[in-house]
Amino acid sequence: MALILSIETSTSVCSAALHESGVLIADEIHREPQSAASQLAVMIERLFSSNKINKKDLKAVAVSSGPGSYTGLRIGASTAKGICFGLDVPLISLGSLHALAAGLPHPDTHYLCPMIDARRMEVYCSLLSPSLEVIEDVQAKVIDENSFADALQLHTISFFGNGSDKCKAVIQHSNALFIEGVEPLAKHMGKLVYTKFLANDFEDLHPFEPRYLKEFVAKTKSR
User: Fold this and answer.
1) Which among 51, 88, 154, 193 would be 20 to 30 A from 81, CA to CA?
2) Which residues fall within 8 angstroms of residue 90, CB to CB, at 6 or more apart?
3) Interior CA angle at 183 toward 187 and 123, to 5°?
4) SS3 for 204?
């Protein structure tokens, strides 16, 4: 049996979950924006204490590796690495868009396009098969009326995630479907993470960094 802690902080939603061999034991979710710094460690401690689980029983820690919120990803990665160093367990990374796609309530036969909001009309996105195999790799993409036009001519595509909301009025092809309410959450990472655990697909702990895609741009307060 493999007890794995998963951490997801790529958007404004901060979450953590415990899985046993891919099966969810318990999870914590905090939806207040910019809450990861103050809430993530508290949530993790509560997961272990409320479920009477010893941290020393962990076999690995998994973290959503981006793209997404620069600050959120850094907090998630540093927290995960700290636990791994402290307990001498391996680190598993899972792309944020795969974590998002794993949360679809009813997987179908359509192509999948998870989207995380970036800035203005830009999103972080990927095009996946129904089995979550990569068709188009992760990219930062400015959305216009021609986005995904070639793929939409041949396939129905389900768009979802907080980045898809601003695309509805722009991508109006008849083969474009928009699914609301799908979030990247730690509780959905279990099966994908466990598959990586069985394959010994671990990160090199010291140099590991999230996949930001773009450089961090500090926001200045308006006067």
Assistant:
1) 51
2) 60, 61, 84, 202, 203, 205
3) 135
4) coil
pTM: 0.92
pLDDT at 33: 79
Tell me, what's the pLDDT at 221? 45
Q: What is the distance between the alpha carbons of residues 60 and 131, in angstroms, rounded to a whole number? A: 24
Residues of the chain with pLDDT under 50: 216-223
Residues 6+ apart with CB under 8 A from 139: 124, 125, 126, 213
Q: Do the strands 14-20 and 3-8 form a parallel or antiparallel pair, or are they unpaired? A: antiparallel
Q: Where does 88-135 have alpha helices with state H?
A: 96-101
Q: What are the residue boundaries of the structural domains of the chain, listed by start? A: 3-97+184-198, 104-179
User: What's the CATH number of domain 3-97+184-198, 3.40.50.300, 2.60.40.2000, 2.20.25.100, 3.30.420.40?
Assistant: 3.30.420.40
